[in-house]
């Protein structure tokens, strides 16, 4: 027996007219009972009821979000195919006639607008797509048809690698008169072997890290037992540190544009980058770790200025799993932090990558049981190897083509507080709040997608196409009733479109607000005590050879790019946004940061040993003596004269085909300078 108490009261004449309109929108598939329920649910507001109907609410149940509609449940029947190209002001022969005299014209127009047709009424509103071009913008005109920029770049890399001959990549020297240093332009540090370029760039870059340079300048080895004067070491880690001391003194005072890096590379037994298939970041990281071990060891155990053998965390941070008892934590030393370059543009940056390594999302909820890595003691210098997946980007069905690789972002300054043991509780609390905001953003984006798309079609654009039909195609043929129907349908569609647009604007505003809050939630004074500034960026263009690795270094507020022997000034924006090698799974591969310093400390000159400085100054005088008069007249030497008398010169075993001579004091042998 039917419970008549649950049946609604009969519809009024106005309600009956509105019910017919709602039923027409659904192509006659909405029964009178549900239409009346839906109408009364929205206080007899036909606009709201129609909007809710298109959003999936048929009156059968109460949707979860009445004010944020969804379009997936629309089940309007599909009519046959037909052209939907923008028609002229008067329909031509062949255009489907939607002006026939049946009563559900609006429903048929709506159904037509939602069909999976390749064209529609009205001008296109899609964003420009490079694939529509006669020659797509991401494919060069000379490329084979259909080859993307990624594929073309990879093809070029393979071709270049196959044609590369290492014996042809020789060490070239500029004429002597072109190798005179101009002003404060940094000196290039070059290896004879192209396979050692990665290591030379590491040595070169560390010179521009203030903490490292000043530490090396301040270091001297302990006196050998039974001796009263310091002698240059010839073995062990002290010999390696001494080779840097000599090299860096030359980089500061020499008046040449380039130096050979062979002596320090031999001292550290640099590993070769011997194959195009090997990532230069991997071999660079191994060399850097070897260098860090030697320097940290010698600073603690063979340092005349550290007789107490105190440990100094210059380049090795200490990390471990978070523990409520900091005295019971199992710690490890780390000199290179390896981070994975992500494919998603939203997480393809250094801070997001570090968060994924140190604070994965699944460790945030329960801080009591979370096994998460934290920095126990930071170092003054920290290096990052950027590891890229060489796999080409996947095919994106929504775009109809392969997705492009996105640029990896790294900041000019970053704070490590959020990854440190001392800030664990506060950072965890902030991250949980951030995670909630990000989850909320995903929900809002899903709602917006449901609102604007149905079966991969742009619903709003289709509704506008339908409106375009009534505004530009439908004709009354001097029938007043027909003219009134057209006018009413235009008004209804306009109201629906306006409601959807208003909801979209509201969602966009909420997303922008939540995103700004999420991005800045960790930017609080309590988590900004340990600031690190970018000092060095090493870049790989994707190919193999001497000139395919280069560096950016910062000196006295200016950024300089070094490619082999060429050193040029660049903007900070260039350093932070270099996209070279992007489509070859290459690009920036090694970053070096160090603690932020006051300006006066950053630019303070290093106090190098006097004897080595004198050697360099004598080398400069020898260089000047070999220059043509017209070149010598333009040379400016900012160095003071040597503080020791000139010593009879002896040839240098470290110069490459050198005619310049230099004195030998510091090691009982000549110094290392190219000429």
From TrEMBL:
Residues 187-596 form the USP domain. Residues 664-675 have a biased composition (Basic and acidic residues). It is an enzyme of class 3 (hydrolase). Pfam families: UCH. Its EC number is 3.4.19.12. It comes from Polyporus arcularius HHB13444. One of its GO terms (biological process) is protein deubiquitination. Residues 634-675 are annotated as: Disordered. Residues 639-651 have a biased composition (Pro residues). It catalyses: Thiol-dependent hydrolysis of ester, thioester, amide, peptide and isopeptide bonds formed by the C-terminal Gly of ubiquitin (a 76-residue protein attached to proteins as an intracellular targeting signal). The keyword Transmembrane does not apply. PANTHER family: UBIQUITIN CARBOXYL-TERMINAL HYDROLASE (PTHR43982), UBIQUITIN CARBOXYL-TERMINAL HYDROLASE 2-RELATED (PTHR43982:SF6). Transmembrane segments: none annotated. Residues 483-517 form a coiled coil. This is ubiquitinyl hydrolase 1. InterPro entries: Papain-like_cys_pep_sf, Peptidase_C19_UCH, UBP14-like, UIM_dom, USP. Keywords: Coiled coil, Hydrolase, Protease, Thiol protease, Ubl conjugation pathway. One of its GO terms (molecular function) is cysteine-type deubiquitinase activity.
């Amino acid at each position: 027996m039917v419970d008549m108490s649950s049946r609604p009261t009969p519809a009024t004449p106005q309600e009956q007219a509105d019910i017919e309109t709602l039923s027409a929108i659904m192509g006659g598939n909405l029964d009178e009972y549900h239409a009346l329920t839906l109408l009364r649910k929205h206080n007899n507001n036909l606009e709201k009821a129609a909007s809710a109907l298109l959003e999936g609410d048929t009156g059968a149940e109460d949707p979860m979000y009445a004010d944020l509609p969804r379009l997936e449940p629309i089940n309007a029947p599909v009519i046959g195919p037909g052209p939907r190209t923008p028609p002229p002001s008067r329909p031509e022969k062949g255009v489907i006639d939607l002006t026939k005299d049946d009563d559900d014209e609006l429903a048929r127009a709506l159904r037509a607008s939602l069909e999976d047709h390749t064209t529609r009424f009205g001008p296109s509103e899609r964003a420009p797509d490079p694939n529509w071009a006669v020659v797509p913008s991401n494919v060069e005109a000379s490329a084979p048809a259909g080859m993307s920029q990624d594929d073309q770049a990879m093809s070029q890399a393979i071709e270049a690698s196959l044609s590369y001959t290492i014996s042809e990549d020789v060490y070239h020297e500029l004429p002597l008169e072109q190798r005179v240093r101009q002003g404060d332009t940094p000196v290039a540090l070059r290896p004879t072997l192209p396979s050692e370029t990665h290591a030379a760039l590491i040595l070169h870059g560390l010179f521009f890290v203030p903490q490292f340079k000043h530490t090396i300048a301040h270091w001297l080895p302990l006196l050998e037992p039974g001796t009263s004067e310091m002698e240059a070491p010839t073995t062990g880690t002290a010999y390696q540190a001494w080779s840097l001391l000599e090299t860096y003194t030359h980089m500061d005072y020499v008046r040449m544009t380039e130096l050979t890096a062979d002596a320090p590379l031999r001292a550290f037994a640099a590993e070769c980058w011997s194959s195009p298939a090997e990532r230069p970041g991997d071999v660079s990281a191994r060399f850097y770790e070897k260098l860090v071990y030697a320097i940290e060891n010698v600073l603690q155990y063979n340092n005349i200025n550290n007789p107490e053998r105190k440990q100094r965390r210059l380049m090795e941070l200490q990390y471990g799993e978070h523990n409520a008892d900091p005295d019971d934590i199992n710690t490890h030393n780390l000199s290179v932090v390896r981070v994975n370059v992500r494919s998603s543009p939203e997480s393809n940056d250094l801070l997001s990558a570090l968060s994924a390594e140190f604070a994965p999302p699944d460790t945030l909820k329960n801080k009591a049981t979370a096994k998460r890595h934290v920095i126990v003691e930071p170092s003054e210098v920290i290096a990052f190897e950027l590891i890229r997946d060489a796999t080409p980007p996947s095919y994106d069905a929504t775009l109809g083509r392969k997705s492009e690789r996105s640029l990896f972002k790294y900041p000019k300054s970053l704070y490590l507080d959020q990854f440190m043991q001392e800030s664990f509780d506060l950072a965890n609390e902030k991250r949980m709040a951030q995670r909630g905001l990000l989850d909320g953003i995903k929900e809002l984006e899903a709602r917006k997608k449901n609102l604007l798309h149905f079966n991969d079609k742009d619903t709003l654009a289709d509704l506008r196409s339908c409106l375009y039909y009534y505004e530009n195609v439908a004709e009354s043929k001097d029938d007043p009733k027909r003219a009134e129907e057209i006018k009413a349908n235009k008004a209804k569609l306009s109201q629906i479109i306006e409601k959807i647009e208003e909801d979209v604007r509201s969602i966009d505003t909420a997303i922008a607000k939540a995103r700004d809050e999420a991005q800045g939630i960790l930017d609080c004074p309590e988590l900004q005590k340990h600031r690190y500034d970018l000092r060095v960026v090493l870049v790989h263009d994707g190919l193999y050879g001497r000139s395919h690795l280069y560096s950016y270094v910062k000196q006295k507020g200016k950024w300089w790019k070094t490619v082999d022997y060429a050193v040029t000034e660049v903007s900070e924006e260039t350093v932070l946004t270099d996209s070279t090698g992007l489509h070859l799974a290459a690009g920036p591969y090694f970053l070096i940061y160090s603690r932020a310093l006051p300006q006066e400390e950053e630019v303070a000159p290093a106090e190098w040993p006097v004897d080595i400085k004198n050697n360099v100054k004598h080398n400069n005088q020898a260089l000047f003596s070999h220059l043509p008069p017209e070149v010598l007249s333009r040379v400016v030497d900012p160095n003071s004269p040597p503080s020791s008398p000139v010593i009879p010169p002896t040839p240098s075993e470290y110069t490459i085909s050198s005619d310049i001579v230099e004195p030998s004091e510091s090691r009982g042998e000549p110094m290392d300078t190219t000429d």
